[in-house]
Design brief:
The complex is a heterodimer of chains A (250) and B (137). Chain A is α+β, with helices and mostly antiparallel strands. Chain A is 24% helix and 18% strand. Chain A is built from 8 helices and 11 strands. In chain A, the strands form 5 sheets. Chain A has a 3-stranded mixed beta sheet with strand order 10-3-11. In chain A, strands 1-2 form a two-stranded antiparallel ribbon. Chain A starts with 8 loop residues before the first helix and ends with a strand. In chain A, 43% of the residues are buried. With 137 residues, chain B is mainly α. Chain B has a domain at 28-110. Chain B has 4 helices and no strands. Chain B has helices at residues 2-24, 43-63, 73-80, 94-102. Chain B is elongated and about 80 Å long. Classes of the chains: A alpha+beta (250), B mainly alpha (137).
C-alpha cells in the first residue's frame, strides 16, 4: 500500500485553489492543470492513511418524512432494479424511525455502512474482497467477491445487500452486478474527485443539513470541530469498532 | 490401375478443397474502431496486453484509490462504443466482436456499464425496499 508522504490531499486541493485564484490561470504548475485538479484529486497518489473519512448525522435535524438521502443514493449509484420480492432490494442507505417507548420521543435517522476502523465484514471475508482503504472507506472488491454473504451476517448494522438479479443499468462510475455483496461506498468515486457523498449533498439541498462529511483526522475540518464540541454517539459503541459515522441527538 | 489413379485423384482434389475451406477459416471479426484519435498504446500492444493493463489498474484504483490512470474501462467505452448502438457489446461491438471470435468470455460487463455516457434512471421506477422509508425487514 503506497502512501503519499508529502502533502495531504486536502492541502494539495487548498494549494491548487489558492494557486488558481491567485494567478488566474489554468496551469498551476508545470504539467499540472486546473482541470485535472477538479476531475481527480492528487492524481496517481491514491488514498492516504492520514485521512479518515467520516460522517456526522444530526438526528435532531433529520425529518422523518424526508427521504432525500435515500433517493440521492439510489440515483447516484444506479440502484433502480425492480424486484419481485422487495425484501431483496439493495439498500446502501435506509431511513429508520426510532421511538422511545417511555417518553414517546421519536428520532429519524439514516443508517448505512458505518465504515468501521475494525470492520467485521473485512475480518470474515474468505477472499479478501471486503476491504478497507487507507482513508477508512470500507469497500467490496467485486472482482474477488464470491457472493458468500458472510459479511452480511457479520455486519452489526445490516449495512450490506446482495445483488440478486442481472443488472444492465449501472452508472459507469459505480459498477455493480449480480452475485456480489455491496454497501455504501461513501460515494468513493465522488470523494476521490473532491466532492461530498450524494446523500450529504441531497440533505443540504433539502435544507435539513443533518449530514456532515469530512476528514475526522483533520482538526480544522468542520466535522472534527463539531465532534470536539458536541456529544456524538457511535451506534453499538460496545463493539469497539470505532465507526466512521457518528450520530448526534440519540 | 485406372481405378487407383481415379481414386487418388479424387482424394487429392478432396484434400485441396478441404484445405481451401480451412485456409479461409471462420471469418475474421470486423472490429470497428469508431473513436477518433490515439489509443493509449499501439494497437499490437493493446491486443496483447489490454487485459493486463485493466487488471492491474482496477486493483490500484479500487484498493489504493489511485485515480486518473491511463488505462480505464470507462476510457475504453468512451472511445470504442459503437456510434449506432452506443455500446461495446453486440454483434459488431468493439469488445464482443473479437471476444466472440477468440471464444474468450469477458466478465467485465456483468458489473460495468458497456454503454458510453450512460446515466441510470435513478430509483423512479423502483418498487423495491430501496426507496421505501422504514427499517429493513
Amino acid at each position: 500500500m503506497t502512501e503519499p508522504n508529502d502533502k495531504s490531499r486536502r492541502g494539495f486541493l487548498g494549494a491548487a485553489a489558492v494557486g488558481a485564484a491567485g494567478l488566474g490561470v489554468a496551469a498551476i504548475a508545470p504539467g499540472l492543470h486546473l482541470i485535472e485538479v477538479s476531475q481527480a484529486s492528487a492524481p496517481g497518489k491514491g488514498a492516504s492513511s492520514k485521512v479518515r473519512w467520516g460522517m456526522l448525522i444530526d438526528t435532531t435535524k433529520c425529518a422523518s418524512d424526508c427521504n432525500a438521502c435515500v433517493n440521492a443514493c439510489n440515483s447516484e449509484n444506479g440502484i433502480n432494479e425492480v424486484l419481485k420480492d422487495p425484501r431483496q432490494g439493495s439498500q446502501w442507505i435506509r431511513k429508520i424511525d426510532l421511538k422511545d417507548s417511555k417518553s414517546g420521543i421519536t428520532h429519524s435517522l439514516p443508517m448505512m455502512c458505518q465504515h468501521c476502523e475494525h470492520p467485521p465484514c473485512v475480518d470474515v471475508c474468505p477472499t479478501h474482497a471486503s476491504m478497507k482503504r487507507a482513508d477508512g472507506i470500507v469497500l467490496v472488491d467485486r472482482h474477488t467477491c464470491i457472493g458468500c454473504r458472510y459479511c452480511m451476517l457479520a455486519c452489526p448494522y445490516k449495512a450490506r445487500s446482495f445483488v440478486h438479479m442481472t443488472l444492465t443499468e449501472q452508472n459507469p462510475e459505480v459498477p455493480r452486478g449480480q452475485g456480489c455483496v455491496e454497501s455504501c461506498t461513501f460515494c468513493v468515486h465522488r470523494v476521490d474527485k473532491g466532492q461530498i457523498p450524494a446523500c450529504v449533498e441531497a440533505c443540504a439541498n433539502a435544507e435539513h443539513n443533518a449530514m456532515l462529511f469530512g476528514d475526522l483526522n483533520d482538526p480544522n475540518s468542520a466535522i472534527a470541530q463539531r465532534i470536539a464540541e458536541v456529544k456524538t454517539t457511535q451506534v453499538r459503541a460496545d463493539l469497539k469498532l470505532n465507526v466512521g459515522v457518528r450520530y448526534q441527538g440519540i | 490401375m485406372v481405378r487407383l489413379l481415379a481414386l487418388m485423384a479424387f482424394l487429392i482434389m478432396g484434400a485441396v478443397a478441404s484445405f481451401a475451406i480451412h485456409a479461409a477459416g471462420v471469418p475474421k471479426p470486423m472490429v470497428k474502431v469508431e473513436g477518433s484519435g490515439q489509443c493509449i498504446a499501439a494497437t499490437e500492444e493493446m491486443r496483447i496486453n489490454h487485459m493486463n493493463m485493466l487488471g492491474h489498474q482496477r486493483d490500484r484504483s479500487l484498493r489504493q484509490g489511485i485515480r486518473g490512470e491511463k488505462a480505464s474501462l470507462i476510457g475504453c467505452v468512451d472511445c470504442h462504443a459503437s456510434k449506432s448502438t452506443g455500446s461495446v457489446l453486440g454483434k459488431d461491438g468493439f469488445c464482443e466482436s473479437c471476444h466472440a471470435f477468440a471464444a474468450v468470455k469477458v466478465d467485465c460487463w456483468q458489473c460495468h456499464q458497456p454503454k458510453a455516457n450512460f446515466k441510470a434512471a435513478g430509483n423512479a421506477g423502483a418498487t423495491g425496499a430501496a426507496g421505501a422509508v422504514g427499517a429493513k425487514p
